[in-house]
Amino acid sequence: MNTLLETPSKQGIRVFFLWYRFITLGYVVILALTGLKVLSVWLLAIAILYSVLLYVFRYTTLNWLQAHPYLLLIDVFIVHAFRVASGAYESPYLLYTFSPLFLAAFLLSYRGAFIFASVESVLLIAGTYMGGYWVTYLAESGEHISTYFLFYFFIAFAMAYLADLLNKLEAINKKKACINNDLARGRKCLEISLAFNRLSDREAQVLMLSSEGKTVSQVASELGISENTIKTYLKRINDKLSVTSKKEAISKITGQED
């Protein structure tokens, strides 16, 4: 399962999916204002209010969905209720029904994309029937309902692919950051060894990790040796650098001596 609020980029994508609802509702408003569709003002007001609440509480909602992603099914039924209540097959809310599908693809990857696309396809048939349209009648009249099915799955898998790609890019960036950190440590360790060539490689390592603010226990854990061995290395370092404490040794290598 993907992690929902890992990075700013993912947060931005999920917030965009919430804004997508307002864009599609804007389309519904335009249809109503131009007279192309006769719509219920109350239904439109409820849809807008629902979308506003989702946006206002977006972080809480997204965190809930992160912990319990299948709660998104509630959203699926709500958006399809808007569609059924406004003309079913001819509803202007059709684009609005894609919004939970987008989030499902990012929350559950390809598995979630397939499951939710299937659920929405079933709801499309059910809603079409409840709206008084028979699938056979639509087919005979030249309406290709199968196009909607394919579009649900196409959109879902496209979003899942985008989510998978984003996860891989973030994994590469994390690995790159780890490599850069290891290189920086290695460079610092080499600088210590060159500046104080009396120190062994292991002593330079211990001193370098100590200079990062790590305790004796943390240094021992990272290097896989005992705390007593670390203390022995620190004593040797103090002797070789002619200092009396770890703090003085760190100050000496960082050039911060009084």
Structure description:
With 258 residues, this protein is an all-alpha fold. The chain has two domains: 163 residues, no CATH class; 62 residues, Arc Repressor Mutant, subunit A (Orthogonal Bundle), CATH 1.10.10. Helix 1 packs antiparallel against helix 2, helix 1 packs parallel to helix 5 and helix 10 packs across helix 11. The longest helix has 51 residues. It is rod-shaped. The protein starts with 7 loop residues before the first helix and ends in a 5-residue tail after the last helix.
What tags apply to this protein structure?
258 residues, mainly alpha, Arc Repressor Mutant, subunit A, 2 domains, Tscrpt_reg_LuxR_C, HTH luxR-type domain-containing protein
Largest sheet: none
The helix fraction, in percent, is over 70%
Structural class: mainly alpha
Count of distinct strands: 0
Radius of gyration: 30 Å
Total count of helical runs of at least 4 residues: 11
N-to-C terminal Cα separation, in Å?
A: 53 Å
The parts where pLDDT drops under 50 for at least 5 residues are 1-6
Mean pLDDT: 78
* Shape by Cα distribution: rod-shaped
Strand content: under 5%
SSE pattern, N- to C-terminal: HHHHHHHHHHH
State the domain count.
2
